[in-house]
């Protein structure tokens, strides 16, 4: 019985590779990872051989049969299909090296920002091309791909190695999808790199809030820094989301800060184009306390585009180390006790422990990425903005309630 399109489409992977036979030596080979390859067994000069006909669904059942018939005609004429295939590959060898295909893959990704595009290409030029850039994609095996990535992994740059693994895998997938090779050996790289232990940013326990608020009020440094710390604690946004903020993003009448997906870059300031980390506009409802702080900050920087201007150059934002340095001056170890990013964990803990707010509302305000695509679509549409307005005011009031003595979130919620 010949195969049908439905059989080919619905063929499921098993624990071991298996074949679905179509006839005349042709079959579909299904791997445990779900990949499907067309193969043709034929005999040439008394020797049994196998010819790769392509990858499904890039090559359909009808196209695989056409390739099979062409190969059988070649055999009948005394020609070896595999040798003919090698000759064609040799003629186009310079066009199918890893570097050439990687650059094609790079050019095909049109949605990246210019900064990200440059960063991706630099990493390949530095760590991958010198080792396998001139090798033919079709000849690369898993050990070839792993070797340059392991070099980086052994230096302790685990995050860089992981990103290189992802990029190499994507490049090889691109090669398979475009018929340059039949199999993606990068799929077998999983588990080969050092797993970096997750280190959470230091944050205080909530019962330390009165001490923190007291130290903030006693801070003797630059006044704009003092109010930046207060604003960061009240809004608990990420560092770059706050440092690169513009006055044009603030709507005082609606008490709302809209962090755009991307900002106008500032000349000479790396990453100043960054907006919301999730690359979609992020809304931050502003409590009465946050608005009061912004009005004070406006006295210092209201005639500039940037809200948090630098100390020495008002055309550039405050340093990324400003808040952490201030916390250090207050007596906190920013590596083990508290850093600016730790405000996010403290706010999240209080909101959860209060029992007042929905999980989706909290996650939305934290601007966390929902991994479940169905829930992500729902949360993005829902927004929970009205709940979040009340939530942000509750957090600001909760901070005020902890100035003299600690009160736990659940008790305050009553």
Sum this structure up briefly.
With 414 residues, the protein is an alpha+beta fold. Helices cover 48% and strands 10% of the residues.
Mean pLDDT comes to: 88
Beta content: 5-15%
The chain-level structural class is alpha+beta
Number of E strands: 7
CATH class of the largest domain: Mainly Alpha
**Going across the major beta sheet, what is the strand order?**
1-2-3-4
CATH homologous superfamily caption of the largest domain: Intergrase catalytic core
**What's the order of the H and E elements?**
HEEEEHHHHHHHHHHEEEHHHHHHH
Structural descriptors:
about 425 residues, alpha+beta, Double Stranded RNA Binding Domain, DNA polymerase, domain 1, hpI Integrase, Chain A, four-stranded antiparallel beta sheet, 18 helices
Structure, explained:
With 414 residues, this protein is an alpha+beta fold. The chain has 3 domains: 5-91, Integrase, DNA-binding domain (Double Stranded RNA Binding Domain), CATH 3.30.160; 95-189, DNA polymerase, domain 1 (Orthogonal Bundle); 206-413, hpI Integrase, Chain A (Orthogonal Bundle). Helices cover 48% and strands 10% of the residues. It is built from 18 helices and 7 strands. The strands form 2 sheets. Strands 1-2-3-4 form a 4-stranded antiparallel beta sheet. The chain has a 3-stranded antiparallel beta sheet with strand order 5-6-7. Strand 1 (18-23) and strand 2 (26-30) form a beta hairpin. Helix 4 (98-108) packs across helix 8, helix 7 (142-154) packs antiparallel against helix 8 (158-177) and helix 15 (359-366) packs across helix 17 (385-401). The longest helix has 20 residues, at 158-177. The termini are far apart. The relative contact order is 0.08.
